[in-house]
Structure formats: C-alpha cells, structure tokens
Design goal:
The structure is a single chain. The chain is mostly helical. It has a single domain, classed as Up-down Bundle (Growth Hormone, Chain: A). The chain is built from eight helices and two strands; from the N terminus they run αααααββααα. A hairpin with a 2-residue loop joins strand 1 and strand 2.
C-alpha cells in the first residue's frame, strides 16, 4: 500500500501541475477529454476537439509503451512505470524550454502531450493477471469501490473493506493539493522539474520494492 500511496500522490501532483499552468488541459481525466473532444466538435471549437483527442492519444500511447516495456524488459512493473514516467516528464521539461519558450509560467501544448504520456505510463505500475489492478490517476473507480466498501463495512464487514481505497483517494487528493499550493508559488516549468524529481525518486523506491500488486 505504501507504493500505491506514493505513486498516487505523484499522479495528483502531475495533474495539478498540468491543469493549473496550461489552458486547463486534463492529463489524468480521459473521461473529460472525451467529452471535450465531442462537445468541441459539435460546438465548432475544432481546436479544442483536436487538442482533447491528441491528449487521449498521448495517454493511451503511454499505457501501450509502458506495458510493452514491462512485457519485454521489466518484471518489476512499479520500477518500469516509474522509469518511463520520469523520462517523459524530463522530455516535457526540455521541450517546454527549447521549443515552447513560454517563460516558465504557462506550459505549451506540446509539453502537456508528454505529461499525458507520462501519466498513462504511470497507470501501468500495478498489474495483476495482465490487467491494471490499481488505477492511479482516474479515481472515479476508486470512489465507487470506496462507497461499496463502506456499505460492506456497515453491513457486517470490516474496515479493511474500504480503508485501502480511502487511503488511495486521500493520497491522490494530497498530491493535487500540494500541486495546487505550489502552483501559487512557482511557474509551470518549475512544477514540471519538481514532478520529474519526485518521479525520479520513485525509480529508486520502486527498484527496491517487493510489494506485490494489490
């Protein structure tokens, strides 16, 4: 559960960094991007639609690449996902500095694509029986399981029926809160640098982790 909490905090922080220092792009919320793509198309805002579709593609590509590397190179999925995430975030920093020239406050769309890729990769950290067992950035399912667990506890179960989901949600919210607070103090480029550093520390932590997939 320790690694789940740590990586959930990272996911929340990355999402906050991207949202607060861009044009409101979602890198953790693909449901929202799907709706923005369709609504943008029907409202005639084709730039919004294309942007949302591009983020969906980048997120999915991150999942694909991390999953492929997991199958071919890394047996420790936590470690492999952390490596891919860190590389993608570092690439976002470089691209933002070299290409976008945004002055460090707002992030350009191209760096955000790399961030979406990174979050997609991060979501492959916990796999069981070939499928993702812990969704780190899309917490709707976590909230549903939390509600079901509370009902189970009330109906005669134990606190364990919901505690893990509650802790995971709290970890994600904590990461988002930290990202929101930091966004008031530094620009988007610095937030990406911090996120890259945290993700890099996850490489060290996950390389030593023997925690099985929940």
């Amino acid at each position: 559960m320790t690694m789940v909490a740590f990586l959930s905090i990272l996911a929340g922080f990355i999402g906050a960094a991207a949202y607060t220092h861009s044009a409101g792009y979602f890198v953790t919320f693909m449901t929202g991007n799907t709706e923005r793509a369709l609504l943008g198309w029907f409202d005639g805002d084709y730039l919004l639609a294309v942007g949302a579709i591009s983020l969906l593609f980048a997120f999915g590509l991150g999942v694909f690449v991390a999953s492929l590397l997991r199958r071919r190179l890394w047996r420790n999925g936590h470690y492999g996902a952390s490596v891919v995430t860190t590389v993608a975030l570092a690439a976002a920093v470089v691209v933002d500095y070299v290409v976008s020239r945004t002055g460090g406050q707002e992030l350009g769309f191209v760096p955000i694509m790399f961030v979406a890729f990174a979050v997609g990769a991060l979501n492959t950290a916990f796999v069981k029986n070939g499928e993702v067992s812990v969704p780190l950035s899309y917490v709707t399912g976590t909230v549903v399981k939390l509600g079901q667990g509370i009902e189970s506890h009330v109906s005669g179960g134990s606190v364990r029926d919901w505690l893990g989901y509650g802790l995971q949600y709290a970890a994600f919210a904590t990461g988002a809160l930290l990202g929101g607070v930091m966004s008031m103090l530094v620009g988007g480029e610095m937030m990406l640098i911090v996120a890259t550093g945290v993700s890099a520390s996850a490489i060290l932590a996950t390389s030593r982790s023997t925690e099985p997939a929940p």
